[in-house]
């Protein structure tokens, strides 16, 4: 709390709200597939649809919400998206208690939550840029990043224990409540938020939906970073299911070993996020962005050598630790760089387009790698993703960008 107060009371509440909802999310990690399997007796195709089809549909629903958010006060949007997620998630335990829970309901809730997640992120980034001066954005983003990795470490084990004691929907209830608490925290921030200047046109046009992508692709430094994050995140996440098949199936790891292999290395993300600001202060933003972005791409290929037993477990933990540490440095620097390069009246649309693309590319690559895993085997498919990741540093910005004010006027509202 002492650190939060240095950025002001409002940021302290925002940070607390973020931490609460992040903990709820990680408590419920894997809850939907578990409910689909244990309660609804869903097959592999249906379970895969929860993550791939649900994410794609949610991204599609979120496309018009970015322009809609841009010209509205962001705090009410943040509160509204929290309440939407709270209400949507709460329908699952209610239906479970009444004995009417269905797979279609799980899928619809996943779509609603995915769309609300994207909209919340876009609004929160835009709000953060108006809440804090530019020199404090990296500090704020580093604190969000460290909180995210902390909840990654403690959330899944606690969630697993809660499911074991209270049943499969217990963590969904916890996740829903976390969004309600987040909404209350954002409501308690206080302060006055100026109303954004409205567009000249009374109605949203079809072309307005592409404003975020146009802005990104027109910027010589945002454009490569945009493709880098979409491809990198997609390839990393696409191998998660294959790694589970390899470890839990072919190599015979116990579930607790599989969980430990990914929970413990998250400490690296906490350490990396704490080092982001000192590294930028010493070496400069662009150099840290490129070096961390390059180093995070070299680790995943090592998973192709995964074997059974203690040695295999240590290999996975070492690879994940290195990968997550580099991501812990890269992510807050990237988030700050992106905010600094985006005009204030375009932040919500830009961040929404960014999140939609990242979520859609992750869903598509997950589906593609599922097919590759079936045809080539999980180990070969994981190795192929690792080799492709080695090329992603080519998409990083090659030179430091001038400040936004030096390169272009603030875009007009059209």
UniProtKB/TrEMBL annotation:
Pfam families: MFS_1. The keyword Chloroplast does not apply. The keyword Transmembrane applies. Keywords: Cell membrane, Membrane, Transmembrane, Transmembrane helix. GO terms for molecular function: transmembrane transporter activity. It is found in: Cell membrane. The chain crosses the membrane at residues 12-35, 47-71, 83-116, 165-189, 225-249, 255-276, 288-307, 313-339, 351-372, 378-396. One of its GO terms (cellular component) is plasma membrane. Its main location: membrane. It is a multi-pass membrane protein. This is MFS family permease. It comes from Nonomuraea muscovyensis. The lineage of its organism: Bacteria, Bacillati, Actinomycetota, Actinomycetes, Streptosporangiales.
């Amino acid at each position: 709390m002492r650190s939060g107060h240095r950025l002001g009371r409002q940021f302290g509440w925002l940070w607390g709200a973020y931490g609460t909802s992040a903990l709820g999310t990680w408590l419920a990690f894997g809850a939907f597939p578990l409910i689909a399997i244990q309660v609804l007796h869903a097959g592999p195709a249906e379970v895969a649809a929860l993550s791939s089809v649900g994410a794609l549909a949610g991204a599609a629903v979120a496309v018009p919400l970015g322009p809609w958010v841009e010209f509205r006060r962001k705090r009410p949007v943040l509160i509204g998206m929290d309440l939407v997620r709270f209400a949507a998630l709460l329908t699952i335990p209610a239906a479970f208690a009444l004995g009417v829970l269905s797979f279609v309901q799980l899928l619809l809730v996943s779509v609603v939550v995915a769309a609300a997640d994207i909209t919340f992120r876009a609004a929160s980034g835009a709000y953060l840029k108006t809440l804090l001066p530019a020199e404090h954005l990296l500090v704020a983003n580093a604190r969000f990043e460290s909180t995210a990795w902390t909840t990654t470490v403690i959330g899944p084990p606690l969630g697993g224990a809660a499911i074991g004691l209270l049943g499969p929907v217990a963590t969904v209830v916890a996740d829903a409540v976390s969004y309600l608490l987040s909404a209350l925290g954002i409501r308690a921030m206080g302060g006055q938020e100026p109303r954004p200047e409205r567009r000249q046109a009374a109605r949203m046009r079809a072309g307005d939906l592409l404003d975020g992508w146009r802005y990104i692709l027109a910027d010589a430094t945002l454009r490569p970073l945009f493709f880098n994050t979409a491809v990198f995140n997609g390839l990393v996440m696409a191998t998660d299911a294959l790694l589970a098949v390899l470890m839990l199936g072919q190599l015979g790891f116990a579930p607790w070993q599989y969980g430990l292999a990914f929970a413990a290395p998250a400490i690296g993300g906490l350490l990396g996020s704490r080092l982001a600001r000192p590294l930028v202060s010493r070496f400069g933003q662009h150099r840290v962005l490129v070096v961390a972005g390059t180093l995070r791409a070299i680790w995943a290929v090592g998973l192709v050598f995964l074997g059974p037993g203690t040695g295999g477990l240590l290999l996975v933990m070492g690879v994940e630790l290195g990968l997550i540490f580099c991501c812990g440095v890269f992510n807050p620097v990237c988030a700050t760089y992106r905010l600094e390069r985006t005009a204030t009246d375009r932040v919500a649309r830009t961040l929404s387009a960014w999140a939609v693309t990242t979520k859609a590319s992750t869903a598509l690559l997950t589906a593609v790698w599922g097919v590759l895993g079936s045809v080539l085997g999980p180990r070969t498919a994981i190795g192929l993703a690792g080799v492709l990741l080695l090329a992603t540093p080519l998409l990083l910005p090659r030179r430091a960008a001038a400040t936004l004010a030096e390169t272009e006027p603030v875009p007009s509202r059209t």
